[in-house]
Every structure is written in C-alpha cells, then in structure tokens.
Specification:
Blueprint lengths: L2 E2 L3 E6 L3 H12 L4 E4 L16 H6 L12 E4 L7 E2 L15 H4 L9 H4 L1 H9 L17 H15 L25 H12 L5 E2 L9 E2 L5 E2 L25 H7 L3 E4 L2 E9 L2 E9 L5 E11 L3 H10 L17 E4 L2 E9 L15 E4 L18 E6 L20 H9 L4 E8 L8 E9 L5 E6 L4 H20 L4 E4 L17 E3 L23 E3 L14 H21 L5
Parallel strand pairs: 1-12, 2-3, 2-12, 3-9, 4-19, 12-22
Antiparallel strand pairs: 4-5, 6-15, 7-8, 10-11, 11-12, 13-21, 14-17, 14-20, 15-16, 16-17, 18-19
Length: 571
C-alpha cells in the first residue's frame, strides 16, 4: 500500500528546463508546487575543476543508467526491437536540471514556416509535394503568437546573439551581444558572403558578458573553455535550470524538490488526473502525491511512456493513423556534413564554447525554392567551434590508414588544421515513425520500456546530400586543400551519436482528433494534465529544440495559471 501525502496545488514530473520554468512561474503566483526528479540533486559547485573528458563525455556521468531503464529500437514494424545497451545516437539526461545541465547552449527560434508547414507547403507547391506517408501537421500556433514567449525565455537565459537576417521578426534584440568571432568564424563569414549567403553568429546560452536577468539572477561570462556539451558549467555562464529558474522557485518558499523520486504512474479518476504514484529509489517505498494539477515535463521518451503506462490518451495506431500518444516521432538529420583539411592554415580548435559558431539559414525551412527538389524543408548550416577535446577528436582525410605510422603523421599534420561545416537537417514526421510500449523488455521495476520505430526516408537522403554539397562549397571557398563530404545517407544507426534532438509523441495542434494537447500543452481529454516539452513538436525543424521548448514552457505556465483560476479548456 502506497503512503499517501497531503494534496498540493501542482505536482511536476521532471525538473529540467520545462519543469524549472513552470515551477518558477507558478510559485511566483503563490501556488504550492512539488517537483519530482528521479535523479540526484545538482549544484554549480559539483563542476569546479572537473574537466574530465573520460568521466563525462565517454562514460556518461550525467546520463540515465541504461542498465535500469533504456529504450528499444527497430527500423520498421517487421523486425523485433532490441534494447539500447550503451549510448550511441542520443543521450538521455538524468538528475536535477535534466539535459538542460549538460547541453551545449545552442538556442534558436524556429522559423515562421515551421509552425504552419503543412498549410504553407500546400499553398506554395500543391498537396502532391507532401508524400502520402508523410504526416506533418501545423502546430496550432503561429510564430507571431509564440514570439513573446521566445523573448521571455531569451531574457531569462541571457541569450547572446546576432540577429538572423532570414528569421521571423523579433520584439527586441538579444539581451547580450554575440560571442567572440574566432579566426575560423571570420573565414567562414567572408567566404559565405562571397557566395551571396547570409551568415550570422550563433545564438548562445553561453554568456558573452556578465548578466542579471529580469528575475534578479546574476551570472558570469563564458571563459571559452570548450567543456559544455556533456558537462556542467562551473562558472554558471551556461544557462541551465539549476542556475536560472530553479533558484527563483525555491526563493518563493512555495517549491519543494524531491530528488530520487521515480514517477511510475499518473493517477486518474474519470477525466481528471488526481496525482501521481512514485517510488523513492533510495528506499523502494511507493508514495502517492495527490495534486489539483499534474504537469508532465520529462524528456520525450519519458512523457510518452508515462502516459501509455497510465492509460491516458489514445495510443497511436500506425495501421489506421488514429490515436495520438506516440504519434509523429521525429529526430534530427545531422549527416549532411563536410570536413575541410587545410595544409597551410592553423585554427585553435581546442578552445571554444558550446554554442560558439557561425550559422546560415539560406537552405533552412522554405527560405529557398523547392519546386524542382524532391524534398521539403532543409536545415541550417553551421561552422561550430565548441572545443575539440583530445580523446574524441582525431580527424584525418578519407583513405588514411586507421593505424600505424602514416595515421600518426597525418593526425599530427591536421590536428589543428581541419574545420567541419555541417548541415543540421529537419526531420519530417511519417505515419510509420512512432513510439509505443515494448511487448518484451521491461525496466528495473517491471514496467515496459518505450519502443522507437524509425528510419531515414528518401526525404532525408535527398535533403542530406543537398546540404552536404552546400557545406562542401563553403569549405572550398574558404580555401580548404581537401574536402570530404557525405555522398549518400545510409540507414539510421542508433549506435552512432548524432544528436539528442528527439521530438514528438504527444503532439500539439488545433484539433483533438489529430493532436494530444492544445496550444497551451493542455491535454484535450484530461484538462488538469499538461504535457510540456519537445514531445509536443508535430515534426522537427532544422534547429536545436531547446529555445522552442523554453518558449512553449512559458506559454504552458500561463495556461496552467488560467486553468487554476477558471478551469476547463484554456483558450
């Protein structure tokens, strides 16, 4: 029998970016909030002098323990899914702050086209431009409607940036100036402009200067140490929930964080959520936490899995296209890359920041004509200088022996003389890409694992080849003596790291028949349950998702406050 605790106003499941933002906004208005985090507590002091690539980047210190819970994967429905036993394609965060602690800080606004992709594609190119099996949808919200929430997120995080000439309109400038340009970034800028392209400095949650945000949180400037991705920031220069929104919620006295608390079910009576059932992982005790409002703010896989385990919402059926929980899983296509080798140029590649680099969007969204192309959308092109740590970076031209004297000689020659220009491609939703519960494999508590069914499509293959060729053109203009670039995109490989940009499964929209949540991320059929995160994306854009997750979180917080006051569906 689970121990039942006193009811609270709101219980939040997962205390990362989404959970931290919502806790901050609700507690400032006086609501009593409990945040349940299945991982351990974290603080900035944990990362003092800990630039340990082996511990964090290769042994995944900050990631979920796959021996206790993992995902299973299959490329199509005709084969059996198998568990992911070691990290590869993506990394699943664990602990207070979630993936918001070990992210790079790359912070984008999606393009206006992204939010109305289906209707705008049909209006411009006709319905036949969209393949029959492609299940892309409009979001049920426009860029203009979401723009104020982007602005709020950027001011809270202190985003450092330079205005994108091909993006949607902004209500205000970035709160801090762009990060410094390196020699490589200057060369990219000069070469891209010669090609009549529109480069700009990447927007970063790595502060370019000291900053105090509207909540009164002060943070120091980035030191360009190159230890962002997979690491916590010992300076607090990288915006993460632990140094931004969580302290604001705690200061109100209305927020209680319970770490080591693994939520296993959302409890429901009729069409109302009544609370959650969780296990204290330190003791094994089962505890029930009643609440007036339940907010699910986990990673994509956790959000979908918990709804399915709790029998909330209609599971997606790929055979009929009906149901919404698990629908429109999408990823990020990051294989359209090119590597340039420079015989007489040297770059300080080992310095950097998680979001230091140059971007151009000439081939992103519908910023270019697709009339004679066999794909829609596209992706940003990036020259990043995130800091090439010594263990994981040893780039040599194709055809170089993989070991021996020639390998060593070539490695030394190009150790600081290579640059990568990459395409970060969008990922369109397809009817046969989805998430469901695995019928065979279970976690340490005996609950079914989440199963991914996904593979690259002709859409992805054509887009990647297109982006890779554009990346190669830029490197040639930059003066590279040799350029290797992707020629063909093979099958999706879950064993090779690509990005942690998983999206979909609890998608938003304007129609309850084709979506799980409304534009405030409130469930259509359980109105006191909000599901917040990248799980709401109907498909993925050609950018990192965190900025959009942040904007949607602020909008969801507004919706929760409206619901708390008046009830019913929030409009």
């Amino acid at each position: 029998m689970a121990r039942k605790l006193p009811k609270v106003d709101v219980v939040i499941i997962g205390v990362g970016w989404a959970g931290g933002i919502i806790a901050s906004e609700l507690t400032k208005k006086g609501l009593k909030v409990v945040g349940l985090e299945r991982g351990k507590e974290r603080k900035t002091e944990d990362y003092f002098m800990v630039h340990d690539e082996l511990r964090y980047a290769l042994r995944y210190e900050m990631m979920q323990d796959l021996s206790k819970e993992t995902i299973t994967f299959r490329s199509n429905e005709n084969i059996r899914a198998l568990p992911m036993r070691q990290y590869g394609s993506f990394l699943i965060g664990d602990g207070l702050g979630g993936s918001g602690v070990h992210w790079n800080g790359q912070t984008f606004r999606f393009l206006p086209y992204d939010f109305q992709i289906r209707s705008q594609t049909i209006a411009k190119y006709g319905e036949k431009k969209i393949p029959a099996e492609m299940s892309i949808q409009d979001w049920g919200i426009t860029y203009d409607e979401l723009e104020p929430y982007y602005d709020t997120f950027e001011k809270m995080a202190g985003i450092s940036g330079e205005e994108n000439p091909l993006a949607g309109k902004r209500s205000s400038k970035y709160p801090t100036p762009a990060l410094k340009k390196t020699k490589a970034m200057e060369l990219f800028t000069e070469s891209a402009k010669k090609l009549k392209l529109h480069p700009y400095v990447q927007p970063a949650a790595n502060l370019s200067e000291s900053y105090k945000n509207p909540d009164g949180i002060s943070r120091a400037a980035c030191q360009y140490c190159g230890y962002c991705e997979r690491f916590g920031c010992e300076y607090g220069a990288k915006a993460d929930p632990v140094v931004t929104v969580i302290p604001v919620a705690q200061k109100t006295g209305n927020f209680e964080i319970r770490t080591h608390s693994n939520v296993r079910r959302i409890l429901k009576t009729g069409n109302k959520a009544t609370g959650v059932l969780y296990t204290d992982v330190t003791t094994g005790e089962e505890i029930e936490q009643p609440a007036d409002i339940v907010v699910l703010t986990g990673f994509v896989f956790n959000n979908v899995r918990l709804l399915l385990l709790s029998n909330i919402g209609n599971p997606y059926n790929p055979a009929t296209g009906t149901g919404s929980i698990g629908k429109n899983y999408a990823y990020q296509v990051r294989k359209g890359n090119a590597v340039g080798f420079f015989d007489k140029k040297n770059f300080n590649n080992f310095a950097g920041a998680g979001a230091l680099g140059m971007i151009l969007d000439d081939y992103n969204g519908d910023n270019f004509d697709h009339s004679n192309l066999d794909f829609i959308h596209g992706g940003m092109i990036i020259l990043g200088q995130t800091g090439q740590r010594p263990i994981q970076n040893n780039v040599v031209p194709k055809g170089t022996p993989a070991w021996g004297a020639e390998f060593k000689k070539t490695s030394l020659k190009y150790a600081n003389s290579t640059l990568t220009v990459g395409g970060e491609g969008s990922s369109m939703a397809f009817r046969h890409h989805f998430l469901d519960l695995d019928p065979t494999y279970k976690d340490a508590y005996g609950d079914p694992l989440i199963r991914i069914t996904f593979d690259f499509e002709d859409q992805d293959r054509s887009m990647s080849k297109f982006l890779a060729s554009k990346c190669a053109d830029i490197l040639k203009e930059m003066g590279a003596d040799h350029v290797d670039y992707m020629q063909e995109l093979g099958p999706y490989d879950v064993a090779t790291y690509q990005s942690t940009h998983n999206t979909g499964g609890v998608i938003m929209g304007a129609d309850p028949n084709t979506s799980a949540v409304n534009s405030y991320l409130q469930m259509w059929d359980v109105d006191n349950l909000f599901v917040v995160g990248a799980s709401a994306f109907p498909q993925n854009a050609g950018y990192n998702p965190t900025g959009t997750v942040g904007a949607l979180s602020y909008r969801a917080a507004e919706g929760i406050l409206k619901y708390h006051e008046s009830g019913g569906q929030v409009v």
